[in-house]
Amino acid sequence: MALDTFIAGKYDGTYDAVAVGITDQGFELEQNSSAEMIEESDAYGATLIDWIYRGGSVNLQFLCKAYKAGSITPFWPWGALGVHSTVVAPISRLASDVATAVVLTATADTPAETAPASLTGSLAILAPNSPAKLLFNSKLRQVPVRLQLLPDVDDGTVSWFTIT
């Protein structure tokens, strides 16, 4: 029997149902909480007394080894690379109108196959203010992707992603 519960295993990813391909180190999920701090009081000075949960944010980032539609689309979801805007795709669009699903699926017969078997962010889009950099030289052209997972509502529950 193992000393503890150890989970490892590759995940395959898709963005808008198109494979992102092989990644450098897999997929990194980052979840942050936001809060209003209760501090600065006459009774306790600058002591942090408590805080009020005010939501949060979730990001998913990965470095694609392949330069193809599955990696370029999430790298720049606003249109073709180099295009600022068009009549069909103008400035002022809501991110949620352009966002699409990102799905991670665990490889069968690995410890990860049920922990979780899949992760789906139904509203994923390039994270705001993310410096998206492509290197044009004689080396492998890797595509860095940092997605913001926007919250979605399903049966009255607001969530950034679902897992199975």
Task: Give a description of the structure.
There is one protein chain. The chain has 2 helices and 10 strands. Strands 1, 2, 3, 4, 5, 6, 7 and 10 form an 8-stranded antiparallel sheet that branches. Strands 8-9 form a two-stranded antiparallel sheet. Helices cover 7% and strands 39% of the residues. The radius of gyration is 19 Å and the shape is globular. It has helices at 69-75, 95-98; strands at 11-15, 18-19, 28-38, 50-64, 100-106, 118-126, 143-149, 152-154, 157-159, 162-163. It has 164 residues and is mostly beta strands.
Strand count, sense and barrel status of the largest sheet are:
8 strands, antiparallel
Instruction: Return Rg in Å.
Output: 19 Å
Span between termini: 26 Å
Helix content: under 10%
Q: Averaging pLDDT over every residue, what do you get?
A: 95
Assess the beta-strand content as a share of residues: 35-45%
Judged by helices, strands and strand pairing, the structural class is mainly beta
Element order, helices and strands? EEEEHHEEEEEE
**Low-pLDDT segments:** none
Bulk shape = globular
Number of helices: 2
User: What is the tally of beta strands?
Assistant: 10
